[in-house]
Design brief:
Largest interface: B-C, 52 and 51 residues
Mean pLDDT of chain C: 89
Largest sheet of chain C: 2 strands, antiparallel
CATH architecture of the largest domain in chain A: 3-Layer(aba) Sandwich
Number of strands of chain C: 2
Largest sheet of chain A: 6 strands, mixed
Oligomer: heterotrimer
Strand order of the largest sheet of chain C: 1-2
Shape of chain C: globular
CATH superfamily of the largest domain in chain A: P-loop containing nucleotide triphosphate hydrolases
Number of domains of chain A: 2
CATH topology of chain C: ABC transporter involved in vitamin B12 uptake, BtuC
Structural class of chain C: mainly alpha
Order of helices and strands of chain C: HHHHHEHEHHHHHHH
Strand order of the largest sheet of chain A: 6-7-8-3-9-10
Chains: A alpha/beta (499), B mainly alpha (359), C mainly alpha (312)
Mean pLDDT of chain A: 88
CATH architecture of chain C: Orthogonal Bundle
Number of strands of chain A: 22
Chain lengths: 499, 359, 312
């Protein structure tokens, strides 16, 4: 007996101008199934889920829910059809309670009926193994707990098809486990779950996988019938080099020394990075990695402690003085902290150095010099742009990242601070960034690499440190560190003291 | 579902607006504004076309009229530039109104101490005093923002009100009031401090040339210097500038000082070029009108000059229009605001696109 | 002289004046608070109040009915805010600039219309204005009676608006949605709720309240229209919303504080203390700056205040 699939998509196509973000995609998802949508950045996963949620309207194609054709013209329609979505970046009001966040926009009548809502929420959350306290403020919750709220929010609205967009990007390995436990409960209750991800180990836990590449559906397979390499091949179209061959560098004296640094919370941080060494800092977002990098770069003052570069004390220097000593900083939020969208590539490349005599002729800026500089950067970093005068706001994420790399790598003669350098860019750019970072390493630069992508950390680091709540939980050589060692530390669990 | 979604439409922001779209939108906006103003004229029982004709005649009909238009435009060039520089950095300096007063008052204070000396001393002092007075008053708002986190929108508006009372204090039977006079004004200033007239039998004074020079300097500053680089960067993404080590407070202070200084020059030009006295009536409204001029001029110095001249024409022509048609000249303030509103709507409309969605 | 001030009848007079002076500001501030809670920063309050004051005056003059004048003023406020709302909510124009344009429009139109309407009259004609409506029994309470319960109807309305606003914001479904629109409109949008509609409603409500406030200035007290007669009250209302942390009761307290200073200043002028009257008149503006400087931050502001929302 064939059952009607919860979701059936036929020939879905969505174009933006000449680009087909989704090109003739057809797939089904059964009730009680965990279906993974796999693809690298830019493959069309977000567009597809946006079409399913009514945020975008496809140009062609049909969508059926439980056999019924539906027109998903808005999120309200999607919700009415039982589709729920948990976005990658949570959409919660920090100053509201859990109850208020879930209830807002629902209900009837004038007065708020919190009592009924509270009971329903508690039933829902307990039924799926979640512990929610309805009256806590969302701003007091951990990232994992916030995700529970997002899930219950969707269930409260009656979701029978739940779309999870990159849910584990912000979770510790332990929290990810709990998520998968909840997903099992959801499956058992007959809810269909679509998991959008690019993390292989999660993908392998699904029932079926649909692989997207450049907008097209490459294929839908049963997970137990394929291997990781098969899926990678489908995702990228070519095998990717997993191991980066590199020369053993002689570890000399530490170039960067952080001694007893105290940020706003946590314990004293001490670490050292030698010239030509990459120290990878693992940890999910929100554990003060940003604060650590900003403090070293001079954007924040520590409570106490010292930062030394080649023996010189940087702790009380200004950002510009630190930069002049050969320090480059690649921020995690490229369009908020790294670039001025309304400026050209040439202008963004001299951001921070715009008073230097280098870029001036007399009291005015030397446009010829900045243009030449931009042309050199465009060519050596293979930036896809129309020229030095192109506005950075028009660049794709990957190319914008390259502009920042061009600027900061040029500054980083001795120390490079990298925060999430491969966030939101496609595999080609990821490989490029990895190569460039390794090149910097060969040039003798000390590199502090912060990334949520453990693949980056494992691929590039000579040593790996773990950060949790403003504290360094441990530093290990690469050979020793693997997920079993790192995972618990990322969740804040210290190993038992060895006997 | 939003209202537009129910109609099967959606308003989507454009990635980039084509120049033709912009021009079309702005032209239709201007047309709509003109039609509305025409309706206002009809409402008071006047034929809009004859009123318009009287306006044009009053603004440009004779040599005397045309130069007078430029006289009325001069303070607006200064306040328009002042506002444009600040708005470019996303600093909402609504205080040009008060900074005009501050510039005039500080210039008067310095100059009256030197009354009787040579014009080669008094004129530079007058200009310098206006720059300093206006600059410092705007600087006050900058410090309130950087040290006390007071929104510049509110602080500058409050300061506008405060300085008018301060001037009244000085002028109403106060230390600056004209001996034996009945009005709230100073005595006439020393002829050696008055700005030279450019053409005989007109009122066009040196201030107009200073305004043009100021426009050129502002253009150079914003487009070609590192300071201008910072102003433009601050207006687009101040955070990115900060991450590179630029001191936010320094940028805010510099921008406000420059902005206030420019507004202060408007005060100087009215006191020492037109009225030869300090009085509230000589200084009011230029600040607020300057904001409209800046926006219509698209925050570009040359746009500001053109818009200022157009508004000078409006003000100048309105007096003649009142005599000829009986329409109160106060109408032009309403017209200015209507033009601004339609301009904003037109600009915004060309930034969006209406799309059909399958309902 | 200070002893003169401390006489009971003078104190009562000052406090009663406080309540009266507070009325238009409180009406405008409550309206603005609701609008800002939805994320829209209506800086055009001054112009809206001014234009409404004028239309109340001219409406009352032509129709002979004070209440019709009030109604017309409310409509004026609502219409101006509707235009403002269209520009900033649907067309996403910069809110600060649009608010300014609205101020200039109110200023210009009111002066022009006044001149056009009464070009031939030597002096603008007066209209009757609302008298006090003492509440029976309550107005006889010693001390508090004359202060709180012997005021105009619009005053009672203004004070009743405070608990009404509190109930709406914190106890109703729509109030929750409104607050959500100001904190994180995406959270509403993603649930299929129309954010723009709620912002429009809030902004127009703010306009209606500003209209009432403006009306009070003419048909409630001054009996004629004088150009620029709002004299910064609209701006003070905006300052009060910030100082009052966007909550009804603190907004009321801030309004009373400013109004008390104003009432005190009037009394002092009458007595003839040797403080220049210009300084007294400037006090509200100086105090506004001081109040904000002491508060030192915009904590408590709706997170998305002033930032237009659209689905990205």
């Amino acid at each position: 007996m064939t059952t009607v699939p919860r979701l059936a998509v036929r020939h879905l196509t969505k174009r933006f101008g000449a680009l087909a973000a989704n090109d003739d995609i057809s797939l089904t998802v059964e009730a009680g199934e965990l279906h993974c949508l796999l693809g690298e950045n830019g493959a069309g996963k977000s567009t597809f889920s946006a079409c399913l949620y009514g945020l975008l309207q496809p140009d062609h194609g049909e969508i059926e829910i439980d056999g019924r054709k539906v027109e998903l013209t808005s999120p309200a329609k999607a919700i009415a059809c039982g589709i729920g979505m948990v976005h990658q970046h949570f959409v919660l009001v920090p100053s509201f309670t859990v109850l208020e966040n879930i209830v807002v926009g629902t209900g009837s009548g004038l007065a708020l009926d919190m009592g009924t809502a509270r009971r329903k929420i508690l039933d829902l959350s307990r039924g799926f193994g979640l512990e929610l306290t309805p009256d806590r403020l969302v701003s007091d919750l951990s990232v994992g707990e916030k995700q529970w709220v997002e899930i219950v929010k969707a269930l409260y609205l009656g979701a029978r098809l739940l779309i999870l967009d990159e849910p584990t990007a912000v979770l510790t390995p332990l929290e990810s486990e709990r998520l998968f436990a909840v997903i099992s409960e959801l499956k058992a209750a007959g809810i269909a779950v679509i998991l959008i991800s690019h993390k292989m180990n999660e993908v392998m836990r699904s029932d079926r996988v649909s692989v997207l590449r450049k907008g097209k559906l490459i294929g839908t397979v049963r997970t137990k019938d394929v291997t990781r390499d098969d899926l990678t091949m489908m995702m990228v179209g070519r095998p990717i080099a997993q191991v980066h061959a590199r020369a053993k560098t002689s570890h000399g004296k530490a170039a960067l020394q952080v001694v007893g640094l105290r940020l706003k919370r946590g314990a004293d941080i001490s670490l050292g990075i030698a010239a030509g060494e990459i120290l990878g800092l693992a940890g999910v977002a929100g554990n003060d990695q940003d604060e650590l990098l900003e403090t070293i770069a001079g954007l924040a003052r520590p409570e106490r402690g010292r930062i030394l570069l080649d023996g010189e004390d940087l702790t009380s220097l200004s950002v510009q003085d630190i930069a002049r000593r050969g320090v480059g900083y690649v921020p995690s939020d490229r369009f908020r902290d790294g670039l001025v969208s309304d400026f050209t590539i040439a202008e963004n490349l001299i951001l921070g150095q715009h008073w230097d005599e280098h870029w001036r002729s007399g009291p005015f800026l030397d446009d010829a010099a900045t243009a030449k500089n931009a042309e050199a950067a465009i060519s050596s970093y293979s930036i896809m742009a129309s020229g030095p005068e192109m506005l950075c706001g028009r660049l794709s994420g990957g190319n914008a990242q390259k502009v920042i790399l061009a600027r900061e790598f040029a500054k980083a003669r001795h120390l490079l601070l990298c925060n999430q350098p491969t966030r939101g860019v496609d595999i080609g750019v990821i490989e490029f960034v990895h190569r460039e970072i390794l090149r910097k390493r060969e040039e003798g630069c000390a590199i502090l690499l912060v990334s949520e992508e453990l693949e980056d950390i494992f691929a590039l680091s000579d040593r790996i440190a773990v950060m949790f709540r403003g504290e360094i939980m441990g530093i290990f050589p690469r050979e020793v560190a693997d997920i079993a060692v790192i995972g618990p530390l990322m969740a804040g669990h210290r190993p038992e003291a060895a006997a | 579902m939003t209202l537009t979604e129910r109609l099967g439409l959606r308003l989507e922001p454009r990635a980039e607006a084509k120049t033709l779209d912009r021009v079309l939108a702005l032209a239709s906006a201007l047309l709509a504004a003109l039609i509305l103003c025409g309706l206002l004229f009809t409402a008071v029982g006047v034929n809009p076309l004859s009123a318009l004709g009287a306006l044009l005649q009053g603004a440009f009909g004779t040599w005397r009229a045309a130069t007078e238009t430029l006289v009325k435009a001069t303070p607006l060039i200064f306040t328009g530039l002042a506002t444009a520089v600040a708005f470019r950095a996303r600093l909402w300096n609504i205080g040009a109104e008060g900074q005009v007063f501050a510039g005039a008052m500080f210039a008067y204070w310095c100059q009256s101490a030197l009354a009787g000396t040579s014009p080669f001393l008094q004129l530079p002092v007058v200009m310098g005093g206006a720059l300093v007075g206006g600059g410092l008053y705007a600087g006050l708002a900058a410090i309130l923002k950087t040290r006390f986190r007071v929104d510049e929108v509110i602080s500058t508006v409050m300061l506008n009100y405060i300085i008018v009372y301060a001037l009244s204090l000085l002028l109403l039977k106060g230390p600056w009031s004209e001996a034996g006079g009945f009005f709230e004004q100073t005595a006439k200033v020393d002829p050696a401090s008055q700005l030279p007239i450019l053409f005989d039998k007109t009122r066009l004074h040196l201030g107009f040339l200073v305004a043009l020079v100021a426009a050129a300097l502002v253009w150079l500053l914003v487009r070609r210097t590192p300071m201008g680089f910072e102003i433009r960067a601050a207006g687009s993404n101040l955070r990115a500038l900060e991450v590179q080590g630029t001191n936010k407070a320094r940028v805010i202070l510099m921008v406000m000082l420059i902005s206030g200084a420019l507004a202060g020059l408007a005060g100087m030009s009215e006191v020492y070029g037109v009225h030869y006295r300090v009085k509230a009536g000589a200084l009011a409204t230029y600040g607020y009108t300057g904001i409209i001029v800046a926006i219509l001029g698209q925050l570009n110095p040359w746009g500001v000059v053109i818009a200022a001249i157009l508004f000078g024409a409006l003000v100048n022509g309105a007096t003649f229009m009142q005599i000829k048609t009986g329409v109160p000249s106060a109408l032009i303030y309403a017209i200015e605001a209507i033009i601004l509103l339609f301009y904003l709507a037109g600009w915004a409309a060309s930034s969006f696109r209406l799309r059909r969605i399958r309902a | 002289m200070i002893a003169d001030l401390l006489e009971t009848s003078i104190i009562i007079s000052i406090l009663a004046a406080t309540v009266r002076i507070a009325t238009p500001i409180l009406l405008a501030a409550i309206g603005e608070m609701i609008a800002e809670r939805s994320g829209v920063y209506n800086m055009g309050l001054e112009g809206t109040m001014l234009m409404s004051a004028f239309t109340a005056y001219i409406g009352a003059y032509h129709t002979g009915s004070l209440w019709l004048g009030v109604l017309i003023a409310m409509t004026t406020g609502g219409l101006m805010s509707l235009v403002f709302g269209f520009l900033v909510i649907s067309l996403k124009v910069e809110q600060i600039v649009t608010g300014l344009a609205l101020n200039l429009l109110g200023s210009g139109l009111s002066i022009f219309w006044l001149r056009a309407a009464f070009a031939n009259a030597g002096q603008t004609p007066t209209i009757p204005f609302f008298g006090n409506v003492p509440i029976p029994l309550l107005s006889d309470i010693p001390f508090l009676g004359p202060i709180l319960f012997d005021q105009k109807l619009l005053t009672y309305l203004a004070f009743l608006a405070v608990p009404a606003a509190w109930y709406f914001l914190f106890r109703t479904r729509y109030g929750l949605e409104l607050r959500c629109a100001g904190e994180n409109p995406k959270a509403l949008d993603i649930k299929g709720i129309d954010v723009s509609a709620r912002q429009y409603a809030a902004v127009v409500f703010g306009g209606l309240m500003a209209g009432l406030g403006g009306a009070f200035l003419t048909v409630g007290s001054a009996a004629r229209f004088v150009p620029e007669m709002t004299n910064g009250r609209g701006w003070l209302a905006i300052v009060i919303v910030i100082a009052g942390l966007w909550r009804p009761v603190p907004v009321l307290l801030a309004t009373l504080a400013f109004s008390f200073l104003d009432a005190l200043q009037l009394q002092i002028q009458g007595i003839g203390v040797a403080i220049p009257y210009q300084l007294l008149l400037a006090m509200p503006y100086i105090c506004a700056i001081l109040a904000l400087a002491i508060r030192r931050s915009r904590s408590g502001a709706p997170a998305m205040l002033g930032i237009p929302y659209w689905r990205k």
